[in-house]
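User: Fold both of these, please.

Assistant: Here is the first one.
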Amino acid sequence: MSKIAVVYWSGTGNTEAMAQAVSDGAKAAGAEVVLMTSAEFDASMMDSFDAIAFGCPSMGVEVLEEEEFSPMFSACEPNLSGKKIALFGSYGWGDGEWMRNWEETCRNDGAVLACDFVICNGAPDEEAITACNALGKALV
């Protein structure tokens, strides 16, 4: 059985709802899933999971949340090489540049992306929830 971590930061609840849908998808595919906020996760935990879904909304000028999520993720970067991951998050403006930049960073770090990232504008609708479920299944 695959052990999956779904690690997220959410200010409004939109990315949290996406994280729950990712978790549900991975569980439906037979994985053991641990859902946690970025404050509950750190780089020392990376090897405890077969795959990790990282979720963070766009903040400021299309960047990752800078106070909690970004420092946690930066600490994880040295451990991304060869690690199966997936990315998701919500946004309220812009065109998804933060996610494209984040994906490029992960590729440059040697991460193995299980599937395309999932983004949604505002609260996740049915289409976004379905895509998040599929993202979770792709990690298994």
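And the second sequence with its predicted structure:
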Amino acid sequence: MVTNILGKEIARVRKEKNLTQEQLGKRIGLPKSSISKMENGITKLTLEDASILFEAMGEKMVLPTTIVMDSKGELQKGQLMICAIEWFADSKGISLEKAFDYLLAFRGIDFLEDN
């Protein structure tokens, strides 16, 4: 699930920056097909991989603090919250960061954590 969220956000930022998958791939030494697989959740993305992609686009990766990964990059908790944030972002047509900020401002995150 996190791979899918990260992939969608990478695609959104890439398009916002008017970069093709090929152009982004060249910046980090990967073929277009690899970028496509990452964006579509076919290839597992670690936080380190995602960070490299964001940096190649001149951005810093920002994730909600409720996402906790173990040393292998596996999601440990917060799956429900991630699903809810992703659903909210998709339903409103906004970025994951904006969705998280909105839910945080209106205490939606507290509700998700408590339930």
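DSSP finds seven helices and two strands in the chain.
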